[in-house]
Structure formats: C-alpha cells, structure tokens
Amino acid sequence: MKKLTLVVIALTAMVFASCGNKTNANASGQDSDSIAKSFDQQQIEASVKMHLDSIAAEISTKKFTPLYQAINNGEIKLSADEKKVKPTYLLELSATNDLQTIIQKYAAFSILNTDKAVAALYEMDTTDYETAIAKLLADINDPALEKIQGKGTFQQIEKEIYEAEEKSGRIHFFWTATCAATIEQLYVASMNAEKFLEGYDDEDVANITFRIVLILDAIDRLSVYDAEIQGLADAIQPLKKINATTVDELKKELAEIKDELAEARTNILK
Prior knowledge:
Number of domains: 1
Strand content: under 5%
Number of helices: 13
Largest sheet: none
C-alpha cells in the first residue's frame, strides 16, 4: 500500500512540477488581509492558476462515479427490508436555512445533492430536498451547476463544469463544491460501507484516493487568496487520513474516521 501511495504522490508531483509553488501575496503590492477580503480570480498568480487547471485536467482522466450518480444509475440497490431502516445521518435541512456566504451555499448544494439521492434510495420523500436545493441554486445563480444533471460520464460533466466556472471566474467555488461533495460521500459511505461501496473495485478506490490528493492540493493553493477557503482547508483535514488503494483498506479507514468526517461536514458549513 505504501508503494502505491508513493506512486500517487509521485505522479502528482510530476504533473504539477512545472507549475510552480505558492507565491508571496505581497508581491502584487497587496497585503494578505486585503486579498482575503476581496477574492478575485484575476489575483491568482499565473503559476497557481496553471496548477489548478492541471489538477482539474488530471482529475478528469480518472474513472470515478460519485455516490449520487451510482444511486441514480441503479448501481446501488436496497431490499424491501433495508428500505425500512431510514438513514438518520443525512444533513438536517434546517442547517442550510441561515447560510450567509456563497461558499457556504455551494458546499450545502453539494451535500444536499448527495443526500437527496440517498433519501430517494430509501424511498423517503425528497420534496423538501428539492425545495432546499432550488433555493440554494437561486441564491448561487450559477448556470454551470445545471450541468450536473447532464448526460455523459461524470468525468465529462465535471470537465464541462470546471470550464464553465473558469470562464465565469468561479473556479474557487468549483473546488469548494467538489470538496464538500467528497466529504459527504465519504461520510455517507462510512455509515454503511458494505452497501455503499458495493460495486466499487480496487481501481475505483485508488482513483478516489488520487482525487483526494488533488483536491487537497487545490484547496491548499486557493486558501492563500481567500480566508473562507482557509477555513475550508482546516475543516477537511480528515481527508488526509484516506490512503486506501483497495476496497478493504477504504472500509477500514472510513470506519476509523467517520466521526471526524461528520465534524468536517458541520465545519464546512460554518
């Protein structure tokens, strides 16, 4: 496992070595406080922007099916008896009522998108989820998010969303949503790993771990420019404990950090 993990890290380093490292915020003549308070994509150093584009391109090359899509595609099924035991771990919809910032709302949208699929899997009423998601979409006002329900592989959809967010100057929101979705999917999976990881193989798990490495890198880069994303970076520290390259390893790791994932979900929305 250690050898494979080192390969993942080495690949990441090779892909992005030419993109450079974080640059000093003061080099642009602005102090870090002013940058944190007025995030603007144009303030991102060219090397960092190139690095983020490279991460997005690399992610899109790896086979990955998010939990909500696996459920919607019928890849995860429940028996009649399993449907009787409703999940108690989904996010309380009231937690999204008082969100103030756009970053919080992107995160909430990603979380509820997963939770709605899980609720539907258990044949729960999803009307309130649909209402909450519609409100978040109205507040966010980002046409790119409509592509989530598009046709094609998730890799194709994700690539289209990133390109749209890049054009509109919202790539920091793309990474926020991706990060929140990752936390929620792992947390949900931790609550019933035998069922929710059904159909995943070792290659899928290795790709999940690779995605996490890239997501953490992207959030770390962006945290220099936005104080709120710095808070997000702090909240998602449990992701660093995911190092699995097999299904069995992932089940074990999720069992060990499920409480930390629950806390991370709460902190993401703060």
